[in-house]
Design goal:
Strand content: 35-45%
Radius of gyration: 17 Å
Number of helices: 4
Number of strands: 11
CATH architecture: 3-Layer(aba) Sandwich
Strand order of the largest sheet: 5-4-8-9-10
Structural class: alpha/beta
Shape: globular
Largest sheet: 5 strands, parallel
CATH topology: Rossmann fold
CATH class: Alpha Beta
Length: 187
């Protein structure tokens, strides 16, 4: 049995081997999946919480689904600060939801984000911090910015466990580390 190639990361003393995944011919990224990894989420949220608190947010906002445990853990560390999850499918109970389009690097397909009508009051006119597990191309981040702009939110910071790709593009992101992108020069 062949062992997959991995990339080692460490956050708050917690080490993980992230599997490398080909997203296009000749281009691979390290996949961080925090779903079910309570130990890693706890370590990341412990380190991110004071960095986020310095921006005095009224709420946290994340996109469905992999970063939901991080938003929850950060909320708990920030005195139960409200958090909102932008959904990737519309449900009738969401009422007059706001929406914006995004393109995730891991899915490679356009996706629509929805802000539930009930959550508009949590972010409207408020100081919010966008939270994600990994910020790579910035497409999801841009989609979240657009929908929050429509809701009248004031985005005061953007945070992730890791940034990925062009490090210069992410200088203003609160992050605990950076993941490279592996490009095969022969492709």
């Amino acid at each position: 049995m062949e062992h997959p190639e991995t990339f080692a990361v460490e956050v708050g003393g917690i080490k993980r081997e992230l599997r490398l995944f080909q997203i296009k011919p000749g281009i691979r990224i390290a996949i961080l999946n925090i779903l079910g990894d309570t130990e890693f989420v706890e370590a990341a949220s412990t380190q991110l919480a004071p960095l986020i608190a310095a921006h005095q947010p009224d709420a946290l906002v994340t996109a469905e689904a992999k970063s939901i445990p991080l938003a929850y853990a950060l909320s708990a560390r920030l005195n139960n600060l409200p958090y909102v999850v932008l959904r990737k499918s519309y449900k009738p109970y969401m009422g007059d939801a706001l929406q914006s389009e995004t393109l995730s690097i891991t899915t490679g397909a356009p996706q629509t984000l929805y802000l539930d009508e009930k959550d508009r009051q949590i972010v409207g006119g408020k100081r919010v911090v966008i939270v994600d597990d990994v910020i790579s191309t910035g497409s999801t981040l841009q989609g979240m910015r657009l929908i929050l702009g429509k809701a009248g939110a004031n985005v005061v910071a953007e945070a992730a466990i890791f940034t990925e790709g062009d490090r210069a593009a992410w200088q203003n992101i609160i992050a605990l580390g950076h993941l490279p992108v592996w490009i095969d020069p022969k492709s």
